[in-house]
From TrEMBL:
PANTHER family: ADAPTER PROTEIN MECA, ADAPTER PROTEIN MECA 2. It comes from the Bacteria. This is Adaptor protein. Belongs to the MecA family. It comes from Desulfuribacillus alkaliarsenatis. Pfam families: MecA.
Length: 191
């Protein structure tokens, strides 16, 4: 499990499917209202406090996004500041979403070039490349590739980079755009 502070009232948690299994939660259970999920959320909030000092009290919004092959991203947003004496009571607004986008991080642009050249069979054009925190991120949005080629694309990308846990919104807001449109086409034509 990885924890990251996005701003003073928002944190992001990435949990791989292995992390969920270790905690006794099946992949499909994340969408249920089972007691195990409530326990998992409480554990997450405790860990967020331990690692970042992010205290959860009052109204909290929890967004859960599934990354089909990597795991889940949980974004916790603290509501308006209420009395800290009420910290044991949470009002939780859970929004669930399925994220079928593909985002992979690469240590060097040469790896992006190699990956793009091997993706031509599945993605002729499309895609975007961003630079963030010393790494290049190749982003393929849902609809830019055939749904049945998802596993093949992620297998190719895994040879050159690692799956990114960043959401599209995070990448678009914080990463520097390198090639914003038709990245696969641009890279394969010029490199």
């Amino acid at each position: 499990m990885r924890v990251e502070r996005l701003n003073k009232d928002k944190v992001k948690i990435f949990m791989s499917y292995e992390d969920l299994t270790e905690r006794g939660v099946a992949r499909d259970d994340i969408w249920s209202d089972a007691p195990e999920i409530h326990e998992l959320l409480n554990e997450m909030m405790d860990e967020v406090y331990d690692e970042l000092g992010f205290e959860v009290f009052g109204s909290v919004a929890i967004e859960v996004y599934a990354l089909p092959t990597q795991g889940v991203i949980v974004i916790i947003t603290r509501g308006e500041d209420v009395s800290r004496e009420q910290h044991a009571v949470y009002q939780v607004d859970v929004r669930l979403g399925q994220n079928n986008n593909i985002a992979f991080s690469f240590a060097d642009f040469d790896y992006v070039i190699d990956a793009a050249n091997n993706l031509k069979k599945y993605v002729q054009e499309k895609g975007s490349v961003y630079f963030y925190n010393g790494s290049y991120i190749l982003l393929l949005k849902e609809g830019e590739f055939a749904a049945d080629s998802y596993d093949s694309i992620t297998a190719i990308l895994s040879e050159y980079g690692t799956a990114s846990s960043f959401t599209n919104e995070y990448i678009l807001e914080y990463a520097k755009p390198i090639i914003e449109q038709d990245a696969i086409k641009v890279i394969t034509e010029y490199f």
